C-alpha cells in the first residue's frame, strides 16, 4: 500500500470519518491549486481507509467520466482515462446513483478494463456517487489487492466523504482543474416533462416545498452538534405526537396508519443511532441527516417489495422535517409575496394547494409527478396556467428566484435560460398573445360549423372566482360546476345556508346563463378531512360520489335543499356523478322529490324549471341506456373517468396514463354508441371531460354527433376557432368509414383530415 510518509499517526480510537474530516480541513488550509488538493485528498482517504487505491472520477458535460485524481493507479492515466456514460462499474455507480461493492470486480460482467490505469492488480472495489443537490457529479472509488466485501461502515464513511468532496468542488475550494465538468447549479438546463396544461410562461421559480440545502458539512465541535441533533429529534417527536392528537385526525382512517408509521420511524433506534454516529464521525447535524437519508434510501430501494419502496417517501418526508427543525424553517418557507411572474415548482401538489397561491401572480406550474388527467392539471388549465408534469428531479435542479421558462407546447422546462432563449420565447409569447387576441374577437361569434351546425360551448368551473370567465370567454353557460371544491376547501362541513349562499352567488354571476351543478363527487382521491371513511384498496372504484350519498342520504338532501333555496324560483340544472346502474337514479329521484315536498310545505319557491341529469362515467351504463335515458333530462359524459375505467388505467398514475388513447377505436365506438342512443331518445348530451378542451379530440366528438361541449374557459377560443373551420358532415362520413376498420391509427387519420380540410387545431 502506498502512503505518504509525513502523515499523522492514526489513533485506533478515533473514527475514520472524523480523521478524514480533520485532514480535509488541513488540506484546504494549505496553499495549492485544485489538482494538488485533489491529489492530497485521495492520498489521505486511501491512508485512513487502508486502501491500495483511491480515485476520483468527475462527470463531464457529455456525461462521460474522467479520472481526475488517483492514489495507487498509474499517474499518467489522470485526465487520459475516460468512461462513457454507464460504462464499467464506475459508470454504473454514476448512472444508478448507488454504491457498488464488489469483492472481485474483474469477474463482474460490467467491469471495463483500462490498461493505462494498471488496475489489473486490484480485485475488490467500492464506488460511491459524488452527489450535489441530487445530481451525480462524479464517483469516489477505493480498491484493494485482496478480494473482500467492504463493510457497511466502510460504505458509510466513503459516502459521507463523497458528500464533502461534492461541496468542495461546487464551492470552488478545489478549483483550477481546467476541466469541462458539470458541477454548477448556475448553468442552464433543460428538463423534459409532460404537458398537463397548455401555454408558455416566463418567470422566476418559487419552490412549493423548498429543499433545505445543507451548506456546512464538517463540525467544529461534534459534542455541540450531537446536542443539537438530540434536541431536534425531541422536537420532532413532540410535533408528531401533537399532530397525531389533533381533533381532525382522531377518527380512524388511512391517515392514522400513515401518522403511526411516521411516528414509529421517527422513534426507530437504528435510525437515531446512525444519525448519532454520523455526527460523532465529524459531520454537522444537518449533514448527518442528509447522509443517513441518502444511504438508507439506497438500501430501501434495493428491496423488490413495493412496501419498502413506499417507505422511501416516509423517510424523505421525515428527514426533511428534521432538517427544517435543525435550520429553524419550521413553518412554510415561502416568500411573503409572490413575484409578479411566479413559476411554482413542487414534487407533488393537489388542487386545493394550488388554489392557496395568488393566481394573479402565478404564471406557470411544474411538478415532478402528475399527468394531464390529474386534478391539479385540471385546475391549472381552468386558471389558464401553463403546467408541466413528470419533470424528473426538477426540485433538485432549481433554487428560489431562478429564471425558468415553461413550454406548455413541447413539455420542456428551461432552467436559467440564456438571453437568446429568453428573447426567442418572448417572441413566442407575443405570437400566442396575438392568437389569444384573435380568440377574444371570436367571443361573441356563434360557434357554427362551415356546414351550418351549431355547437354549444360551455365552461367548467368550481369556484365563484371562476365565474367572470363566463363573459370573458364567450361561453354559453357553465356545463359543469364542481360543488365539491367548496367542501374540500372548508375545515368542516359547510352548513346549509353557507352552501345556499355560495350557489346563489354563482347563479347571480351567471346572469341568466344556465349553470349545471354537479352534486358532491367526494370519496376516492377527494376525501374530506372531517368525513371519516375506511381505507380502500382501490378508492377510484370504491365508496365515492353517488355511492356515498346513497348510503348517507342526509348529505345529498342537504345539498339539494341548498340548491333549491339558491334557485329561488329560477331555472335549476343539477346532475349526479358516478352512477353505475340505472336503478340508482330512481333512489336519487326519490330523495329529490322529498326535498321538493319539503320546500313546498315551507313556502319556498320551487325552480321555474328543474332539469336533473346524470354523469356517465361508468362503462356498465353503456349497456343500460334504454333504461337510464327515460329517467334523466340530460346526460353529461365524464370522459376522464369513463376512459380510465374502459382502459383499466388510473389517469392520475403517470406510469400508466399513456396506456389509453382517447382517439383510438375502442373509446370512439363507445362514445358513438352513447351519442346515437341519446339522440334517438332526444336526451341532450354534453361531453365535459378533458376531451372537450382539446381541439383535435373535440373535432372527433363533433364528428361522432356531439353538439355540446364543456371545457376550461381558456379552451373556449381554440375550440371555437376549430368549429368555425370544420365541415362536420365531411368529418362524420370519414369517421363512419374509419370506425368500421380495425388496426388503424385513428389519431393520425384525424390529424390528416384536419390538415387536408384546413381545420384550425
From TrEMBL:
Keywords: Cytoplasm, Kinase, Magnesium, Metal-binding, Phosphotransferase system, Sugar transport, Transferase, Transport. Its main location: cytoplasm. It holds the Pfam family PEP-utilisers_N. SUPFAM superfamilies: Enzyme I of the PEP:sugar phosphotransferase system HPr-binding (sub)domain, GAF domain-like, Phosphoenolpyruvate/pyruvate domain, Phosphohistidine domain. The keyword Cytoplasm applies. Its EC number is 2.7.3.9. It is found in: Cytoplasm. It comes from the Bacteria. Residues 33-179 form the GAF domain. It catalyses: L-histidyl-[protein] + phosphoenolpyruvate = N(pros)-phospho-L-histidyl-[protein] + pyruvate. Its cofactor is Mg(2+). PANTHER family: PHOSPHOENOLPYRUVATE-PROTEIN PHOSPHOTRANSFERASE. Belongs to the PEP-utilizing enzyme family. This is phosphoenolpyruvate--protein phosphotransferase.
Amino acid at each position: 500500500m502506498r502512503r505518504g510518509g509525513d502523515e499523522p499517526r492514526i489513533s485506533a480510537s478515533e473514527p475514520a470519518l472524523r480523521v478524514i474530516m480533520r485532514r480535509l480541513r488541513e488540506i484546504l488550509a494549505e496553499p495549492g491549486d485544485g489538482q494538488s488538493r485533489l491529489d492530497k485528498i485521495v492520498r489521505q482517504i486511501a491512508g485512513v481507509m487502508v486502501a491500495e487505491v483511491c480515485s476520483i472520477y468527475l462527470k463531464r458535460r457529455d456525461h462521460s467520466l474522467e479520472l481526475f485524481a488517483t492514489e495507487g493507479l498509474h499517474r499518467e492515466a489522470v485526465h487520459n482515462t475516460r468512461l462513457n456514460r454507464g460504462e464499467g462499474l464506475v459508470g454504473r455507480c454514476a448512472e444508478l446513483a448507488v454504491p457498488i461493492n464488489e469483492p472481485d470486480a474483474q469477474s463482474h460482467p460490467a467491469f471495463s478494463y483500462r490498461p493505462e490505469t494498471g488496475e489489473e492488480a486490484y480485485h475488490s472495489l467500492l464506488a460511491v456517487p459524488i452527489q450535489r443537490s441530487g445530481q451525480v457529479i462524479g464517483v469516489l472509488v477505493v480498491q484493494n489487492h485482496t478480494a473482500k466485501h467492504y463493510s457497511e461502515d466502510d460504505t458509510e464513511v466513503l459516502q459521507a466523504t463523497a458528500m464533502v468532496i461534492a461541496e468542495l468542488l461546487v464551492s470552488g475550494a478545489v478549483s483550477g482543474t481546467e476541466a469541462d465538468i458539470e458541477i454548477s447549479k448556475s448553468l442552464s438546463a433543460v428538463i423534459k416533462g409532460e404537458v398537463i396544461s397548455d401555454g408558455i410562461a416566463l418567470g422566476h421559480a418559487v419552490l412549493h416545498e423548498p429543499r433545505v440545502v445543507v451548506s456546512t458539512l464538517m463540525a467544529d465541535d461534534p459534542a455541540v452538534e450531537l446536542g443539537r441533533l438530540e434536541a431536534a429529534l425531541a422536537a420532532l417527536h413532540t410535533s408528531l405526537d401533537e399532530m397525531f392528537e389533533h381533533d381532525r385526525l382522531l377518527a380512524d382512517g388511512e391517515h392514522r396508519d400513515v401518522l403511526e408509521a411516521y411516528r414509529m420511524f421517527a422513534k426507530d433506534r437504528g435510525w437515531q443511532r446512525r444519525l448519532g454516529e454520523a455526527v460523532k464521525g465529524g459531520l454537522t447535524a444537518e449533514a448527518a441527516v442528509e447522509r443517513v437519508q441518502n444511504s438508507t434510501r439506497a438500501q430501501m430501494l434495493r428491496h423488490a417489495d413495493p412496501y419498502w419502496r413506499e417507505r422511501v417517501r416516509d423517510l424523505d418526508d421525515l428527514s426533511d422535517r428534521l432538517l427544517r427543525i435543525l435550520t429553524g424553517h419550521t413553518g412554510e418557507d415561502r416568500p411573503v409575496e409572490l413575484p409578479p411572474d411566479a413559476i411554482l415548482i413542487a414534487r407533488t401538489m393537489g388542487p386545493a394547494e394550488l388554489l392557496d397561491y395568488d393566481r394573479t401572480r402565478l404564471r406557470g406550474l411544474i411538478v415532478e409527478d402528475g399527468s394531464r388527467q390529474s386534478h391539479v392539471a385540471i385546475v391549472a388549465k381552468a386558471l389558464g396556467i401553463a403546467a408541466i408534469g413528470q419533470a424528473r428531479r426538477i426540485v433538485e435542479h432549481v433554487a428560489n428566484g431562478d429564471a425558468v421558462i415553461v413550454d406548455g407546447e413541447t413539455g420542456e422546462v428551461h432552467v436559467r435560460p440564456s438571453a437568446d432563449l429568453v428573447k426567442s420565447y418572448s417572441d413566442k409569447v407575443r405570437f400566442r398573445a396575438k392568437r389569444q387576441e384573435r380568440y377574444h374577437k371570436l367571443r361573441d361569434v356563434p360557434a357554427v360549423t362551415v356546414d351550418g351546425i351549431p355547437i354549444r360551448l360551455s365552461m367548467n368551473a368550481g369556484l365563484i372566482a371562476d365565474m367572470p370567465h363566463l363573459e370573458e370567454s364567450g361561453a354559453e353557460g357553465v356545463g359543469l360546476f364542481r360543488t365539491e371544491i367548496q367542501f374540500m376547501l372548508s375545515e368542516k362541513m359547510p352548513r346549509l345556508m353557507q352552501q345556499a349562499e355560495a350557489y346563489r352567488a354563482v347563479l347571480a354571476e351567471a346572469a341568466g346563463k344556465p349553470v349545471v351543478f354537479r352534486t358532491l363527487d367526494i370519496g376516492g382521491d377527494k376525501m374530506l378531512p372531517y368525513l371519516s371513511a375506511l381505507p380502500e384498496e382501490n378508492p377510484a372504484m370504491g365508496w365515492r360520489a353517488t355511492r356515498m350519498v346513497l348510503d348517507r342520504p342526509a348529505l345529498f338532501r342537504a345539498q339539494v335543499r341548498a340548491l333549491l333555496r339558491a334557485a329561488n324560483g329560477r331555472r335549476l340544472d343539477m346532475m349526479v356523478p358516478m352512477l353505475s346502474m340505472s336503478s340508482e337514479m330512481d333512489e336519487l329521484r326519490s330523495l329529490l322529490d322529498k326535498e321538493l315536498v319539503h320546500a313546498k310545505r315551507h313556502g319556498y319557491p320551487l325552480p321555474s324549471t328543474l332539469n336533473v341529469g346524470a354523469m356517465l362515467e361508468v362503462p356498465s351504463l353503456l349497456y343500460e341506456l334504454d333504461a337510464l335515458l327515460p329517467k334523466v333530462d340530460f346526460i353529461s359524459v365524464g370522459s376522464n373517468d369513463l376512459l380510465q375505467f374502459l382502459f383499466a388505467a388510473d389517469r392520475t398514475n403517470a406510469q400508466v396514463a399513456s396506456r389509453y388513447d382517447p382517439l383510438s377505436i375502442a373509446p370512439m365506438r363507445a362514445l358513438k354508441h352513447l351519442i346515437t342512443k341519446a339522440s334517438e331518445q332526444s336526451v341532450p348530451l354534453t361531453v365535459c371531460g378533458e376531451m372537450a378542451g382539446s381541439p383535435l379530440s373535440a373535432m372527433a366528438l363533433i364528428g361522432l354527433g356531439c353538439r355540446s361541449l364543456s371545457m376550461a374557459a381558456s379552451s373556449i377560443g381554440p375550440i371555437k376557432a376549430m368549429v368555425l373551420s370544420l365541415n362536420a358532415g365531411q368529418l362524420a362520413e370519414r369517421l363512419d368509414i374509419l370506425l368500421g376498420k380495425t388496426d388503424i391509427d385513428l389519431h393520425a387519420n384525424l390529424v390528416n383530415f384536419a390538415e387536408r380540410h384546413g381545420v384550425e387545431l
